[in-house]
Amino acid sequence: MASLKTSILRRFQSTFTSKPIPSKTHFHAPIPDSAFPKGYVLTGIHAGVKKKAGVPDLGIILSTSPRPASAAACFTRNAFKAAPVVVSQQVLEKSQGRVRAVVVNSGCANAVTGKQGMEDAWAMVSATDALLEPVPQKNETMVMSTGVIGQNLPIQKILTGIASQSPKTPGNTSTLGSSFEAWELAARAFMTTDTFPKLRARTFSINGKEYRLAGMDKGAGMIHPNMGPPSGQLHATLLGCILTDAAVSPRSLQSALTYAVDRSFNSISVDGDMSTNDTILVLANGAAAEGAQEIDEKTDPASFDVFKQELTNFAIDLAKLVVRDGEGATKFVTVSVNGATSYEDAHKIASRISTSALVKTALYGEDANWGRILAATGSIPLATPLDPSRVSVSFIPTDGTVPLRLLVNGEPEKVNEARATEIISSEDLEIQVELGLGNESAKYWTCDFSYEYVRINGDYRT
Amino acid sequence: MASLKTSILRRFQSTFTSKPIPSKTHFHAPIPDSAFPKGYVLTGIHAGVKKKAGVPDLGIILSTSPRPASAAACFTRNAFKAAPVVVSQQVLEKSQGRVRAVVVNSGCANAVTGKQGMEDAWAMVSATDALLEPVPQKNETMVMSTGVIGQNLPIQKILTGIASQSPKTPGNTSTLGSSFEAWELAARAFMTTDTFPKLRARTFSINGKEYRLAGMDKGAGMIHPNMGPPSGQLHATLLGCILTDAAVSPRSLQSALTYAVDRSFNSISVDGDMSTNDTILVLANGAAAEGAQEIDEKTDPASFDVFKQELTNFAIDLAKLVVRDGEGATKFVTVSVNGATSYEDAHKIASRISTSALVKTALYGEDANWGRILAATGSIPLATPLDPSRVSVSFIPTDGTVPLRLLVNGEPEKVNEARATEIISSEDLEIQVELGLGNESAKYWTCDFSYEYVRINGDYRT
């Protein structure tokens, strides 16, 4: 009997041969020093949070621009906000959105660590404030942590590491710099189970004037961010830091970031689990043109719109890198939902498909089991109920060949299984769902669910 | 570097040694014929929906009681309702809650099969109606299907199989009966990836009069039901059929079932994916006492409450069997959320913890990574926001030994890792979350996430 056969298999089969996980390291490549924003020095050092010697686990970013940089952030909406999330939020308030530094550690999330955790996060802020020149100010540093939840930081090691970067420290070993190597070290300090440092830069211009954006992020698991501006209730471990040498007012910087995060970091999923630490920061130090007027949504909407779109596209690039490096991922899948009556409905469905264990294991198995896509699509309540007779589903190959229609207006197509398998076997793939109800659409980026995901997360702490 | 190490592992590690999946077959045992409700004949035969010869894939249940049985059902709320779900709902309406038969097939879900699917489901109803004695009536059969989505039924094979059970068919090979063997065959006809038939019976009494309940269900994957009464918008593949020889009015039978399903089948999860077919049916034929008055919520609330509670406890037993047999499951985990201000909030949190990929992989890895439980708990919006300083989390061993407190009022305990690992290493385990906000609580039943789950669902159709 099939059931008996399954039973025997499940009891005695004890080894699996997995597909090789494609190397992702080619997604990291050298960037010319000239492409990075002006007025920042960075480094990443081994402070000892992680056991293995030499692994960067502490990152420091300082703005050297005479005026404090405008700062904005989106934080996790998880009810259990990690100490660094609470502290960074307070720093933003106290500094009225003007800061000069960012400090980040990997290896320990400083989350659910009670009062000690808050003291430790503040100690990291003060120690980094002390590095600032010419005149150190209080509360000019934002702090981020990522790693295991529920354990306290080895705070003395971290403080010693921060102090080692101060010219005032006798025999200091400061490695702060502005070269590609310095940016790369900082990016490495963000990494946990990431297999490559996530670092990108781009140049854009407004009214003929050139500005630069650069940023780094991390995250491979516990990735299903839901981040809002500081005012919002907090939720989401994805960390990201975006730096620009444009001058933007704090209020407008937050407005642009909130818009960008909804369409980038809040539209990716690796495993559907929200972290207590997710944080995306932006600093705009105006170093590209000292004394230039700040870009502002109200006074110069045209320039602001250019900046907002550049920031959004850049954030999408950084967000995709996290999915590309998803724990155990062998595929990079774009889920597009079109024809909705609202962005929210489209986004909800794209999110549900992107987090379905059955869809993700079928992708890993390269089984074109599109019925699971339908089941996921229909499984959530929406503002406008679905009309099954209007729903269509297609696989879109990324090699430019013709799409494969699986379901058209609720009726299954005679699917060419060979073609379906061909498309689903490629590393990149797009699943397109058309609702036929309206003109709103949303995109989500996800990966498959592999043996390696289970292995990595079955023994993360050991 | 850790990241490099991970990278190498993830690129080249290609085999895994999994823990042996414990056999679940001892959860199926013989039941005395006398324990089954009176007035039903059943069978399970191989009609040819499944490839493998001899595997039951068609189940038939007939009530032989002179009067039609009262019927009630809860159906999936998925927007893509499978044809048998739509048809069974219409049968309930047309028959005004009075039916005499149930027909079920496994191997093909007849879901997302368009017009042909509806015709096929109706054909199964008519063919089974024709088996009813003494006088066949139209629309007295409820139909259920489970298996692959998006494929049409081999309807001729199914109709031939149904007809083979009719005494009128020349050379018929009817195997309909009322012995344990007949009930077991019917239960086997429900199975897909189940490793054992799920069949239970219990006797209860109201006012000194004895009644019997018996039922069967199936489901091992795509298990995260959300079922409502026919009136409700439809969602959920879990199939279940509960039969009793008590006499209960259709309206009261539905009321009791809706209450029971919310606290049983709607409180289990294997993989968080809702099916298009989930259906739980109840038939009450009154055969225990022909002509006896029907139990009714309005006219005899005391008797009704006894029946409702018996039905609920019985439904919980059947629901737990599905989790126990979850695809690739090595553990049976009870998630209890207490101290909520509403059942809905408690149920939402229990559901989120029970579906967290990170919690489930940690359970498989027997890693007491309780921080993931916290992250899941805090990740969903609630009617009453959480106060982290009031939240406590404990592991409750099922061997009666002392519970292990992990977090107390938001502060982590110094956890005895050895003890935590000891508890998490047992096959059965309870995770208890105390919110400290109110007096409402909810329970959820889930399993772990293993290599086998990925294997089973990576090639379900092949």
Automatic annotation (TrEMBL), chains A, B:
GO terms for molecular function: L-glutamate N-acetyltransferase activity; L-glutamate N-acetyltransferase activity, acting on acetyl-L-ornithine as donor. Its main location: mitochondrion. The record marks A236, T237 as: Cleavage. The alpha and beta chains are autoproteolytically processed from a single precursor protein within the mitochondrion. Its EC number is 2.3.1.35, 2.3.1.1. The active site is at T237 (nucleophile). Pfam families: ArgJ. This is Arginine biosynthesis bifunctional protein ArgJ, mitochondrial.
